[in-house]
Amino acid sequence: MTSTVPTAVHDEQHPEVRSAPPITMFGPDFPYAYDDFLASPAGLGSIPATEHGAEVAVIGGGLSGIVAAYELMKMGLRPVVYEADRIGGRLRTVGFEGCDESLTAEMGAMRFPPSSTALQHYIDLVGLETKPFPNPLAPETPSTVVDLKGESHYAETIEDLPQVYRDVAHAWNACLEEGADFSDMNRAMRERDVPRIREIWAKLVEKLDNQTFYGFLCDSDAFKSFRHREIFGQVGFGTGGWDTDFPNSILEILRVVYTEADDHHRGIVGGSQQLPQRLWEREPQKIVHWPHGTSLKSLHGGDPRPAVTRLHRTAGNRITVTDANGDIRTYRAAIFTAQSWMLLSKIDCDDSLFPIDHWTAIERTHYMESSKLFVPVDRPFWLDKDEETGRDVMSMTLTDRMTRGTYLLDDGPDRPAVICLSYTWCDDSLKWLPLSASERMEVMLKSLGEIYPKVDIRRHIIGNPVTVSWENEPYFMGAFKANLPGHYRYQRRLFTHFMQDTLPEDKRGIFLAGDDISWTAGWAEGAVQTALNAVWGVMHQFGGATDPTNPGPGDLYDEIAPVGLDED
């Protein structure tokens, strides 16, 4: 995703943050405590026994679809998962042909903040481990090199960088205080003070919905300097530069910084795709209707159903699904978790599936492009010391060259390792699109060779590169949603679609979920939260209810519904 100022900088200016409770990615648009909902021994709810075994279509086998299917199965429903490609979606972990199986590359999501508390519930549930991710200037990152306009700076902490970089970091903090009440919102979110969160956010939504990220910077006295804005765009702090986000709505960026989504990242040991795969195979201890030993995998005979090719409504307000094998099945409820543009292109859809305003919102959804390329290497040679300087011979690298961000990933000094030679977004990603993996690697090695003239990266490479351009993936067409200015109303329609009592009866029964629907786009937490919303919606449709001691997102909707803006 994007990046923010190191937490240490926030702490320096706001010492009260250091002793405050930990934050969770539960707002500010919809401040519902999904982590508490999941942790309750009362469970997520129940349906009448007469509905046990009823089938529900779940379209998309990414994290959102698998979480939704898993929870519906536990309630006694029979989820039928359709997946066009592979279980995992944008949690995609791949290996390197001919190399040790322990060497993996995260083609999609690769770093997760502690504020992703609902996501962490499932990580813990399936017994996965996490470890610190080596972002630039993170405490666990041995060193970072910032290379701009042909000039390189080596740093182990932000204090090692020239003063202008610290000036930029402080300008960003000041900008957030001036224009977005950062400290006040941060405190309210830590304390889960819903009325205060809503009070602050309602004013900001109305004020800033039409504002770009770049315009927000320009309006701040702290960022009057173009040089400071340029450095911030090219390098940023946290995980890299911000400039690919500059055209997006500032509201999208504030959601990231308020929830600390870009701080203290951790990676999943062995790869993130294990999470949906393990949920697919997991046999829950607490399950209704189904015998113990039941899993999503066993309900499906091992594999999900193939890609959906048609969705339409039939008599009785049913949802009828046709798959790539020509099989036709009809359901009383369906959850659509795949990339929303699929409804416009690859899937033949009835207009009657959604209200026209929702179709408009789907059509106007804006996606970010993203590309990565990884190579396997014989060892973490970057930890070798330069004899002249005593510094690491190579570092986590931020640059204005084509590579933009280079990440060094290892499991110990005596083991093979992996380099993400380049991670880019938007226009920077499109520059790579026409090139093959080997052509991309050659350009990247040339750029890095100019930054590290003493280092022969090529001689350490032990296998072929692997690469992805998400905008060119046929079932994704982009990396993640990112609202443009003026898109708040569209996003609200999509996120709140699980609340269907006010919809006409002939527009109910199909529920949207997934990263595209989330307020916190680009983060797996949003996929989990929207899955849980859809689970509540399906449960409600089947006449079920939550336990009074554990109200769900729909039960509390009137208290925490996203701010509504006038559409006239």
Notes on the structure:
With 568 residues, the protein is of the alpha/beta class. It is built from 18 helices and 21 strands. The strands form six sheets. Strands 7-6-16-17-18-15-19 form a seven-stranded mixed beta sheet. It is globular and about 75 Å long.
Report the average pLDDT across residues.
94
Shape: globular
Describe the biggest sheet?
7 strands, mixed
Percent in strands: 15-25%
Instruction: Enumerate the strands of the largest sheet in spatial order, edge to edge or round the barrel.
Output: 7-6-16-17-18-15-19
The SS-based structural class is: alpha/beta
Distance between the termini: 33 Å
Radius of gyration: 24 Å
Which percent range fits the helix content? 25-40%
Chart the SSEs and their pairings:
Layout: H1 7-13, H2 34-39, E1 55-59, H3 63-75, E2 78-82, E3 93-95, E4 104-106, H4 117-125, E5 130-132, E6 144-148, E7 151-155, H5 163-180, H6 182-190, H7 194-208, H8 213-218, H9 226-234, H10 250-258, E8 266-268, H11 274-281, H12 296-299, E9 308-314, E10 318-323, E11 328-331, E12 334-336, E13 348-349, H13 356-364, E14 367-368, E15 370-377, E16 396-399, E17 405-409, E18 417-425, H14 426-430, H15 437-451, E19 466-469, E20 480-481, H16 488-495, E21 510-512, H17 524-541, H18 557-560
Parallel strand pairs: 1-2, 1-12, 6-16, 9-13, 12-21
Antiparallel strand pairs: 3-4, 5-8, 6-7, 9-10, 10-11, 14-20, 15-18, 15-19, 16-17, 17-18
Helix pairs in contact: 3-11, 3-17, 5-9, 6-7, 13-16
